[in-house]
Each structure stands twice: as C-alpha cells, then as structure tokens.
C-alpha cells in the first residue's frame, strides 16, 4: 500500500494550547473500535440484530463526537468466510462511515481472512476507507496533517511467526514476540520519525492483558507479546482482547468488543474509545458507554424464586441470561418453562449438593501453567528425570508450530 496523505484543516493555535481567539486548542480525534465479530452466534443465538443495533448506536456517537478518523482493530467478522448477511451489515456500516467523509482504517484479526478483507482496498481508499493488505513485510502509513504537523497511522494486521519468517528470511521469528518485534523494528527503521505523532493499530495478545472466555487464545500464553515493543508509538489501538482495558499506559489500549459475547463478560462495561491527539506527547483518552439491545446477565435462585413476579418485575426479561437454579431436584422441562418468562435464556445449570459433590477435580494449581510446564512435569513423572535443555527447546518449537497450524 502506498503512503497516503490526508489533510485535516485546523485553526492555528498558540503555545498555550489556545487559538488566536483564545478558544481551547483543536485536537485530532479518533474513534477506536475492534472485535465486532459480525455474524457471531453465542450459545447458538444469532447476534446479527444486536450487532446492527449497536453499530447504529456507534454511528450516533460518531455523529456527536465528529472524529477525524475511525480505527477498527481487527476481527471484523467472526469467521474467515462470513455469511452473506454479515458482509452486508459491515458493508452498510462502512458506507455510512464513508458518507460522513472521514478516514476509516481497518486491519484484519485472527478471525478474519486477510485476503477477503483486503479485496477492493485500492478502490475503497478513494473513499477514504483504508483496509490493511495481506501482510507482505511492509507496513506503509497513512499520513494525516493538522496544525501540529503530521499523524502517521500504521496498520498492522494479525501476524503469526510463520508468516513473518516468510517475509524476513534469516530473521529470528520463532515466537509471536519475536515475530512482532521483527515487524516493528522494520516499521520504526528508516523513514520513521519519532518526533512526529504515530498511531499503531495491532491485533495481538499483549502481556498483562486480562482475557475472558469468548476469546480464542493459546494455552499458556504462547501468543503473548511484550508491551515494551510498542513504546515508539503515541497511541496503540489494540484488538483481540474483549474486555476494555489499558496495558501499562493510558495510550495503549484494548477498546473491547461492542457487545458481550460470553457470560464471563457479564460484568463488563462495553464502550467505544475516544482518542484525542494534540501536540506530540499530549494524548487524551476517554470512553463513551454503549447500550445493547439485549444485555447479558446472570441470575441465581430456586425455581420458585426466579419465576416469582416480584423477582423479575421491572427487569429486562428479554436479556440474554444464564440462570443457575439452586433446587436440590431437577425441574422437569425447566428451560422451556423459564423461557415463558425469560425468552432469551442462553444457559441453565444447577448449584446444589449433587452438583457440588461432582466437582472433585482440583485444577487450581494447574490452570496458570504453560503447556511446557505441564509437559515437563509429565516427562519427569514418566522418566524420573527432567528434560534436557535440547529436549525442552525441541518440545517448545513443536508446540509453537502446532499452535500456528491450528490458528
């Protein structure tokens, strides 16, 4: 992709951050989105209507905020080959953004097909919609200008070690951390100006991020990359992790999904991130809350409790629900009966003496262990001695290769 220049006219400002009329300085503003997962089904419930609803709300926020650009940091779709309805929903969303005459930047995530997402990229660039191309080792920025100078937006799609090794023969890229380090060293090499403002869009699992059940991550963190790799960028717009959060600093953030996609996210406050860039070194970050068509909640109690009108009166009974019944005996056709009150029950289970007695396997000490640690323990148990350094290195490379193949 050739480097593009996008002009953003701004009134001049003085050194106190105010323009000549004394009004507050005008910033370059971006809306940061990611992980739309258009076409996703949750517990076999289609989410397309909920996604249409939330995208309309995002457009409303965009109309209020009037940003200079929109950053969509990967996982546009939930499948590499999305259903036609999902493509139509994203097409309508992109068209609505393009009609507002603001640049839109989109990278592919691990759920997307880079080739499909990049189709028509050169044509769409004419409307100010910039799609990350299939990664070939080069990441050219789109450059925007305002009264402070230029802002360069670098779009890095989801990359795996095998892809990076093909693009940089002879360079070390055995792990995800090595691979991303290699790419970023190339980006921040010749032609990169640390004195100007630089934004990076990336779709990777950064160490320190808090994950949830709806993400497809490697066991033991094989995908993780160091947060320190991104130090040269004024703002890092991350995708991949579904909970909104900062990583180390306010200006390196996961904006999270616009909707809840698992009950591990029931407590999340979904939002869009608003990023404002002033002069170099002055970045402001805030969030705008989102209000879904159906919330995702968990409720617990006996069957008689949760079906009592006093319990559910005044609540959103059409929310997506995980109901835990505390009755000692199973209720006949419980989910069918509950759906007469709560039509969108997604999950039903029991918490009683019988179910608690069945929970006899203690894995608390193992869930945080890496695959290598678990395999090492198994090897030592079977062979009465630990693995040698050579065996350990061979096993690690084998595991990393398997993880790449299944992703």
UniProtKB/TrEMBL annotation:
Gene Ontology terms for molecular function: 3'-5' exonuclease activity; endonuclease activity
GO BP of this protein: DNA recombination; DNA replication
Gene3D superfamilies: 3.60.21.10
CDD domains in alphabetical order: MPP_Mre11_N (cd00840)
SUPFAM superfamilies with a match to the protein in the record: Metallo-dependent phosphatases
Domain Calcineurin-like phosphoesterase: 28-243
Keywords assigned by UniProt, alphabetized: DNA recombination, DNA replication, Endonuclease, Exonuclease, Hydrolase, Nuclease
Residue ranges occupied by any Nuclease SbcCD subunit D C-terminal domain in the UniProt entry: 293-382
Function of the molecule: SbcCD cleaves DNA hairpin structures. These structures can inhibit DNA replication and are intermediates in certain DNA recombination reactions. The complex acts as a 3'->5' double strand exonuclease that can open hairpins. It also has a 5' single-strand endonuclease activity.
PANTHER family the record matches: COMPONENT OF ATP-DEPENDENT DSDNA EXONUCLEASE, NUCLEASE SBCCD SUBUNIT D
Family label: Belongs to the SbcD family.
Subunit structure: Heterodimer of SbcC and SbcD.
UniProt name for this protein: Nuclease SbcCD subunit D
Species of origin: [Clostridium] citroniae WAL-19142
């Amino acid at each position: 992709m050739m480097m593009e220049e996008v002009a953003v006219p701004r009134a001049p400002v003085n050194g106190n951050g105010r323009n000549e009329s004394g009004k507050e300085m005008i910033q370059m503003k971006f809306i940061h989105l990611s992980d739309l997962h258009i076409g996703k089904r949750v517990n076999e419930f289609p989410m397309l209507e909920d996604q249409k609803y939330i995208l309309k709300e995002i457009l409303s926020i965009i109309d209020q905020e009037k940003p200079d650009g929109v950053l969509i940091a990967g996982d546009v779709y939930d499948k590499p080959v999305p259903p036609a309805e999902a493509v139509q929903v994203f097409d309508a969303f992109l068209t609505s953004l393009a009609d507002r005459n603001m640049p839109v930047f989109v990278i592919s995530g691990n759920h997307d097909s880079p080739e499909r997402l990049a189709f028509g990229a050169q044509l769409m660039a004419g409307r100010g919609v910039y799609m990350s191309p299939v990664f070939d080792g080069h990441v050219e920025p789109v450059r925007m200008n305002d009264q402070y100078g230029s802002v360069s937006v670098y779009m890095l799609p989801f990359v795996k070690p095998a892809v990076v090794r093909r693009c940089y023969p002879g360079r070390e890229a055995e792990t995800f951390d090595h691979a991303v380090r290699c790419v970023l060293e190339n980006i921040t090499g010749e032609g990169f100006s640390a004195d100007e403002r630089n934004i990076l869009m990336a779709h990777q699992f950064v160490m320190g991020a808090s994950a949830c059940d709806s993400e497809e991550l490697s066991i033991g963190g094989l995908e993780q990359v160091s947060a320190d790799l991104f130090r040269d960028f004024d703002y890092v717009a991350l995708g991949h992790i579904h909970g909104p959060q900062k990583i180390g600093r306010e200006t390196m953030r996961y904006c999270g999904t616009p909707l809840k996609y698992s009950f591990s996210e029931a407590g999340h406050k979904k939002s869009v991130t608003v990023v404002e860039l002033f002069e170099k070194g002055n970045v402001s970050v805030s969030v705008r809350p989102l209000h879904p068509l159906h919330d995702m909640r968990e409720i617990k109690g006996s069957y008689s409790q949760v079906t009592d009108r006093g319990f559910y009166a005044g609540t959103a009974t059409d929310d997506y629900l995980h109901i835990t019944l505390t009755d000692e005996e199973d209720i006949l056709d419980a989910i069918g009966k509950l759906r007469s009150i709560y039509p969108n029950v997604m999950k039903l289970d029991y918490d009683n003496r019988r179910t608690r007695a069945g929970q006899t396997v203690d894995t608390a000490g193992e869930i945080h262990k890496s695959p290598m640690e678990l395999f090492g323990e198994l090897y030592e148990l079977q062979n009465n001695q630990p693995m040698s350094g050579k065996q350990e290195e061979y096993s690690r490379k084998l595991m990393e290769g398997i993880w790449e193949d299944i992703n």
